[in-house]
Amino acid sequence: LAKTTQPISMDSYEGQEVNITCSHNNIATNDYITWYQQFPSQGPRFIIQGYKTKVTNEVASLFIPADRKSSTLSLPRVSLSDTAVYYCLSGGYNKLIFGAGTRLAVHP
Amino acid sequence: DADVTQTPRNRITKTGKRIMLECSQTKGHDRMYWYRQDPGLGLRLIYYSFDVKDINKGEISDGYSVSRQAQAKFSLSLESAIPNQTALYFCATSEGEGYEQYFGPGTRLTVT
Predict the structure, then answer these.
(1) Do the chains contact at A94 and B4, CB–CB below 8 Å?
(2) The 3-state secondary structure of B2-55, one letter per residue
(3) How high is the pLDDT of residue A94?
């Protein structure tokens, strides 16, 4: 049974780098990995997506090892406004499996 | 205006009642999705539609039905609501497989 697992919560301080790891042991060959951010009373918002190796955009980096059984979202120099829940999604076509979410709290 | 809208935003209903949640999008996407969000469980896929004539069950479709009235509209129905269907419901759209999903603001449903 496909399952996506991530830590329940993390704490950090302003200016630090935060790495959130997601486990997706049963990922299929054609599945991609996507991360979303969610603030209270809002729908999730896309952060980054990748298939293998490393992807970087203006807000985050995504590291995917060769076996693709895990992925790590890296947020450089977080600020208070990065306090949110972060979801890992693995899947493709007709199988979309979200993790339960990681609640990130950024402190002053 | 928002690209993906959901109505109503909040709804309280009684056990056994039929209720419909509506979703509209202006992004021109063919793919639309309905998810349910529960504390500690993340988002779970209820139904998805790749176009008006293509509707598919997701992970937790029991107790729910959907209707794709047009490319821009995708409705979720609870034929006979029960308390364990109390949750936050999200609609989403995407351009295609492998593309990011755009989520609506959510509908908070309470079944008493």
Answers:
(1) no
(2) CCEEEECCEEEECCCCCEEEEEEECCCCCEEEEEEEECCCEEEEEEEEEECCEE
(3) 64
CA A3 to chain B, closest CA, distance in angstroms equals 12
Query: Which residue matches tokens 């006979």?
Result: B80
- B91 to chain A: nearest residue by CA? A43
Quick check: A1 pLDDT over 60?
Answer: no
Give the pLDDT of chain B (112 residues) as one tens digit per residue. 579 999 999 999 999 999 999 999 999 999 999 999 998 888 999 999 999 999 999 989 999 999 999 999 999 999 999 999 999 999 999 987 777 899 999 999 999 9
Best probe of the B interface among A89, A93, A96, by most B CBs < 10 A, is A96
Report pLDDT for A28: 85
Q: Long-range contacts for B66-74 (Cβ within 8 Å, ≥24 apart)?
A: B66/B34, B68/B32, B71/B28, B71/B29, B71/B30, B72/B24, B72/B25, B72/B26, B72/B28, B73/B22, B73/B23, B73/B24, B73/B25, B74/B23, B74/B25, B74/B32, B74/B34, B74/B49
Q: Which residues pair with B48 in a beta bridge?
A: B33, B56
Find all residues with CB under 8 Å of B111, minimum gap 6, and list them.
B13, B14, B15, B78, B81, B82, B83, B84, B85, B86
Nearest residue in chain A measured CA to CA from B45: A96
